[in-house]
Amino acid sequence: MFGYVQPLRPELRVRDMALYRAFYCGQCKAVSRRYGAIARGFLSYDTALLGLLSAALSVQDAGVRNERCIASPIKKKPVARPCAATEFAADANVILAYNKLRDDWRDERSKKAAAGRVFLSRAYRRARRARPDMAGAVETLMEELAVLERAGCPRMDEAADVFARMMQAVFAELGAESGDARALSWMAYNLGKWVYLTDAFDDLEKDVARGCYNVIWLQYGREGDAAACRREMREAVGFNLKTSLSQCAAAYELLNVRRYKELLDNIIYLGLMDRTERVLKGESKQADGSI
Amino acid sequence: MLGVSEDATQEEIRAAYRELVKKYHPDQYANNPLSDLAQEKLKEINLAYDMLADKSHNGRGPSGGAYGAGAGPGMEFAQIRDMIVRGNIQGAESALNAIQGRNAEWHYLYGVVCLRKGWYDQAREHMQKAVRMEPNNVEYRAGLNNINSMSFGYGRSYQRSGMQGDSGGLCNICATLWCADCCCECMGGDFIPCC
Sign of dihedral through CA atoms B71, B73, B74, B77? Predict the structure, then answer.
């Protein structure tokens, strides 16, 4: 994922902000514990949602405690206690980050991606052992997406579908123990679809300039320039993004959320919508902490 | 279930109940594969409300699902509608793909299938095609309206948060007042004397 899934901070209460940070830190510590300090460098905000959602749905709450860390060696900060939720987020983070790097290396021959892959390969082997189903599905679907992109698929529904199914595979482990599997699956599908199309519209100019695959550019018909494409496609992309989000939210409302509802509400209703509006206006920048 | 405290008043219970019914109303989940879950949730809410509220109430939403109302000429479309109602979306899709002549009803049903799969772009395109081919068909027009309005409810809390404006709300109020004052002045009056 690309760092798009975040709360809308100005609307966040102070304690919810602390909670969000605590989950981000908890995930970071879990990555470090399970995969070593180097893997920490590939942390993403997106998977913080996974940890948070997992903790919100589980029967027992591990809670938060004050701890020091490398980034804040003197002052203690709230960190989510090690639990199944933070471990799940850590595993998902490593699996998604590694596959993203592999994809970048294949597509753009980016040296940064190649180096990152080398650093992460050991961690990935371990993550793969811990979650073979998730890693296998992500690999297969990334491959399917690469084939589709090489063939120049010009339909946004079709390209986003593959990515959305990948998100379903990641969320699948989250719903394994709770009775929310179906709602989670539909939520994941629509969130994945939103992430893929948001990224495509956000990167439109960059992709067109570099000649990289961009489904919105291809569906538009590749005539004129990226600015014309952005103008013409804004309505259609906006419709797809907002419809996906409304379905994602409808599924979210059916989940049995036991805690942290205010923070989750903020992410689902405000954070995602704010990002949508900014991407549609063309003023989104690649988010901080993205992989 | 209703999210109210133990000592909530009848008013509070009713308000919470109304809010939840609105949230899980069948209309909100009209084209959502999770509509049955929403209906279950609504049942639980009704049960909880019945337990809390001493007097009986009415105004519960009717259950949704309005497919199968159209009078399709071919047997095939009737069967496909039946598949959609039963939730066999894959079956409906392959049946539709096997049909050669693609009339308005074909596009409408294909749009419904796309919608259930989460392929919103194609869904809208096929619905638009159906409406273009038969502009007077009420069912197709309702289908298209439905797709276009799916996201309306979602953005409401964001708009309420006031984050989406280019300028602050106060500025807008001032500007509006100033404009109103200008209009008044043109007509001979003046409700803000200093400008």
Answer: negative
